[in-house]
Task: inverse folding
């Protein structure tokens, strides 16, 4: 993204905000079954609308129907977190899945916790809530992390603490966004895994990435098979350099990749060589420098 990122300073404040909201939900008891709602109020379901910038885009219809059946029998166990909007009514901060299921169950009102949030806090809290509940597919997760960094100016360290994921995990998730749209669609639909996606990143041609992704979806190819195919399709080494690496070198590269959370390439010569470490943006470069300094 061009231009200087704005530093919102929401990293620490977001953690406190989410802890407060989560604490209220945990203490809310079993709604409709004698629990203490800790400030929850009943709000008309038609007065609530989804968050237009909700990071989660895909909702499993069968899962919603199952939750609706549970709500009919037991009520809503955890209140929905909402905020007031200037034009009237409320906007969902966390709990859109419960709201959708409640509509399907025929509820007219739902228990809610009302919070005063800015647009930035709304988006960040929605991302964190979904990631901590593991409700996002890999593409939604990567897009949410990218938005936290590039739109809201958070560092990878702040993101790591907010979502409870390691920095290498975040870096690897963000790399998936470099895949072609056709591959990202299969990843969103669960037809290929994040591991497949990372393996496909080493394929040089987008056309080949798309073709291999289709093969994975149809034939169920493993990540190891894709890594092997990708390796065999790499441009042959220039004359004077070995075209293939022995098992020991490949093992060292794999260990460094696991340790650093990014691709590492060893170029060995008779007396000298190179260690190449890839990075994908300034934040990841800073992360790698920190890792190397503390090694």
Result:
């Amino acid at each position: 993204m061009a231009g200087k990122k704005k530093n919102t300073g929401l990293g620490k404040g977001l953690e406190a905000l989410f802890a407060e909201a989560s604490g209220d939900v945990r203490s809310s008891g079993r709604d409709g079954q004698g629990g203490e709602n800790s400030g929850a109020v009943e709000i008309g379901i038609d007065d609530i609308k989804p968050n237009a910038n909700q990071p989660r885009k895909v909702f499993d219809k069968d899962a919603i129907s199952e939750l609706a059946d549970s709500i009919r029998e037991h009520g809503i166990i955890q209140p929905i977190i909402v905020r007031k909007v200037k034009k009237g009514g409320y906007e969902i901060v966390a709990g859109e899945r419960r709201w959708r299921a409640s509509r399907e169950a025929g509820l007219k009102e739902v228990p809610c916790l009302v919070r005063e949030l800015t647009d930035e806090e709304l988006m960040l809290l929605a991302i964190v809530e979904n990631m901590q509940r593991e409700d996002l597919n890999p593409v939604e997760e990567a897009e949410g992390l990218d938005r936290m960094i590039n739109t809201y100016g958070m560092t990878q360290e702040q993101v790591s603490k907010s979502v409870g994921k390691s920095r290498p995990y975040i870096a690897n998730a963000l790399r998936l966004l470099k895949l072609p749209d056709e591959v990202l669609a299969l990843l969103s639909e669960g037809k290929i895994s994040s591991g497949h996606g990372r393996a496909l990143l080493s394929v040089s041609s987008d056309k080949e990435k798309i073709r291999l992704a289709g093969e994975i979806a149809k034939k169920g190819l493993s990540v190891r098979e894709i890594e092997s195919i990708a390796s065999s399709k790499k441009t042959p080494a220039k004359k004077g350099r070995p075209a293939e690496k022995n098992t020991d070198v490949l093992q060292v590269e794999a260990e460094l990749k696991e340790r650093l959370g990014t691709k590492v390439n060893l170029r060995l010569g008779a007396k000298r060589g190179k260690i190449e470490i890839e990075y994908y943006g300034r934040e990841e470069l800073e992360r790698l420098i920190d890792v190397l300094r503390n090694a």
Remarks:
- Residues 1-178 form a domain with the Conserved hypothetical protein from pyrococcus furiosus pfu- 392566-001, ParB domain fold (CATH 3.90.1530.10).
- Residues 10-26 form the longest helix (17 residues).
- The longest strand covers residues 109-114.
